[in-house]
Specification:
Blueprint: H1 5-13, E1 18-22, E2 25-28, H2 29-45, E3 53-57, H3 62-73, E4 77-80, H4 87-97, E5 101-105, H5 109-118, E6 124-128, E7 138-139, H6 140-146, E8 160-166, E9 174-179, H7 180-192, E10 202-205, H8 212-223, E11 227-230, H9 236-246, E12 250-253, H10 255-263, E13 277-281, H11 287-296, E14 301-307, E15 314-318, H12 320-323, E16 335-336, E17 340-345, E18 358-364, E19 370-371, H13 375-381, E20 382-383, E21 386-395, E22 401-406, E23 410-413, E24 416-419, H14 420-428, E25 433-443, E26 447-456, H15 464-472, E27 483-486, H16 500-510
Parallel strand pairs: 1-11, 3-4, 3-5, 5-6, 6-7, 10-11, 10-12, 12-13, 13-14, 26-27
Antiparallel strand pairs: 1-2, 8-9, 9-19, 14-15, 15-16, 17-18, 18-21, 20-21, 21-22, 23-24, 25-26
Keywords: Ligase
Domain AMP-binding enzyme C-terminal: 422-497
InterPro entries: AMP-bd_C, AMP-bd_C_sf, AMP-binding_CS, AMP-dep_synth/lig_dom, ANL_N_sf, ATP-dep_AMP-bd_enzyme
Length: 512
């Protein structure tokens, strides 16, 4: 199994069908495949060897989809860059993955210049777009025009397909190694449900393409031969306009985006009758938003996915029928996807009784190869073939999974994962901070918000805004605390550990 396989099928069976629609620009599968093969040839001409890592930092575009296919076509490995990260975080991931070629679009030229200066291993930067760029950078369209198409390497199976960097509890990102088999297995499992893709449909990319949730949908819709409609990023009005203009059939949004969409003043003015399927995931959805969505889209099939990057990323799926069942199961994470086994276990790996909380684990062809250059971290979570998610939950008598907490203190805000340890590390870098703890608190808009509880050094002063600004110099803006409490001391256990559960309880009681 390999990611580029759908292109060969498309070229044989429907070469003149629209492959991509990016604004006013449409390209057929024949044109799309030609450009992918030329970009792969261009990468080869720049010295890309089998297994080399090639990164891209950019907004959603048809060029991004060409990158996703051309890199494995050239027998190399994808490294999508999280554009919400700080410069320091991006540099660290590029150095760690030993990236030698980076694609940068118009929106990130300035950042790309700064990153190149700090990454001595970067041999080439390719500019994707029509704006100004440094003279030494390679122009994307010129590279395609000057390069002959090459044969698909058909990199496949257990060969590394992509590195996705995800935050770690130690404060440093880990590169999740996903194979071609991992990604195709997850996509095929989703497609096998029958409610994940619309035959001969049109899927709208509005979630970021660097995110594995969107990439999984890209792979599933590619397997189905569907058309990819693209907007640069999520904007509620633009999504509504695009659905109407291009008769989009399939959407994927995180719950925050759903709320923004249905709250938009022009929502009722758009013809959204083309929509057939509406999938969501990446963070919890509030009952109020779910109920409104079900009412506003009475003829649309809703599906939810639960998983994590290490699971390529899907472990469980909640089907449309259960969404409209009126039972408490509509607030579950669904049941094991066709490609996945799911259990809930105790600390010794023994199954918990039904209804009792334990750690969620998953097994199957979707489980990652491991963490890049981190064998000890890999061994800590992969045991006997089971991926230990660090999430807590329970199963009911029909296999529905209910996620109740995150053992690793992960905070999911607006669909993005934030680990408390990395925010705490940043806060400790401020001279006024003596000790701190970071927890997730419920938030109407973002699902959760990052909340910090801080003890200042004797005689020192600092405001919440000062601490927030400090964190933003080290981490992505969405990781900075949205709220801060200043206290005299943090609650500690007898073993000297901060009692975060008590902090959450106290903060909620005080209405912070």
């Amino acid at each position: 199994m390999y990611l580029t396989q759908p292109l060969h099928r498309a070229l044989q069976q429907y070469p003149d069908r629209a492959a991509t629609i990016d604004g006013a620009r449409q390209r057929t599968f024949r044109e799309h495949v030609e450009r992918v093969a030329r970009l792969a040839g261009g990468l080869r001409s720049l010295g890309v060897q089998p297994g080399d890592r090639v990164a891209m930092m950019g907004r959603n575009s048809d060029s991004y989809l060409e990158y996703l296919m051309a890199v494995p076509w050239a027998d190399a490995v994808l490294v999508p860059v999280n554009t919400r990260w700080s410069e320091i975080e991006v540099v660290d991931s590029l150095i760690d993955s030993e990236v030698e070629i980076l694609l940068v679009d118009d929106a990130y030229v300035e950042t790309g210049v700064a990153i190149q200066a700090r990454c001595p291993g970067l041999r080439h930067v390719i500019h994707v777009g029509s704006g100004d760029h440094p003279e030494q950078w390679i122009d994307y369209e010129t590279l395609l025009a000057d390069s002959a198409p090459v044969e698909d390497a058909r990199r496949s199976g257990d060969a590394l397909a992509a590195l996705f960097y995800t935050g770690g509890t130690t404060g440093r990102a880990k590169g999740v190694m996903l194979s071609h088999a991992n990604l195709v297995t997850s996509a095929l499992g989703c497609a096998a449900t029958g409610f994940w893709t619309t035959p001969n449909g049109r899927f709208l990319h509005s979630a970021p393409m660097f995110h594995l949730a969107d990439l999984c949908l890209w792979a599933a819709h590619s397997l189905a031969g569907n058309t990819h409609v693209i907007v640069p990023g999520f904007d509620a009005r633009r999504v509504l306009d695009t659905v109407e203009e291009h008769r989009v059939t399939d959407l994927f949004l995180v719950p925050t985006m759903i709320q923004m969409l249905i709250d938009h003043p022009s929502f009722g003015d758009h013809d959204l009758s083309s929509l057939k399927r509406f999938n969501y995931g990446a963070s919890p959805i509030s009952p109020e938003v779910l109920d409104r969505t079900l009412r506003l889209f009475p003829d649309v099939e809703l599906g939810q996915a639960y998983g994590m990057t290490e699971l390529s990323p899907v472990a469980t799926l909640l089907d449309p029928e259960t969404h409209r069942s009126g039972t408490s199961r509509r607030f579950s994470a669904g049941r094991a996807a066709p490609h996945s086994e799911v259990r809930v276990v105790d600390v010794d790996g023994v199954d918990m009784p039904l209804g009792e909380v334990g750690e969620i684990v998953s097994r199957g062809g979707h489980v990652m190869l491991g963490y890049w250059k981190q064998p000890e971290a890999t061994a800590a979570v992969l045991r006997d073939g089971w991926m230990h998610t660090g999430d807590a939950g329970y199963l009911d008598d029909e296999g529905y999974l209910f996620v109740v907490d995150r053992i690793k203190d992960m905070i999911v805000t607006g669909g993005e994962n934030v680990y408390s340890a990395e925010v705490e590390k940043a806060l400790y870098g401020h001279p006024a901070v003596e000790s701190c703890a970071v927890v997730g608190m419920p938030d109407q808009t973002y699902g959760e918000r990052v909340h910090a509880v801080v003890v200042l050094r004797p005689g020192a002063t600092a405001t919440a805004d000062e601490l927030r600004a400090h964190v933003k110099t080290l981490l992505a803006g969405y990781k900075a605390p949205r709220s801060v409490d200043f206290v005299d001391a943090l609650p500690m256990s007898g073993a000297g550990k901060i009692l975060k559960r008590r902090l959450r309880r106290t903060t909620a009681t005080n209405g912070a």
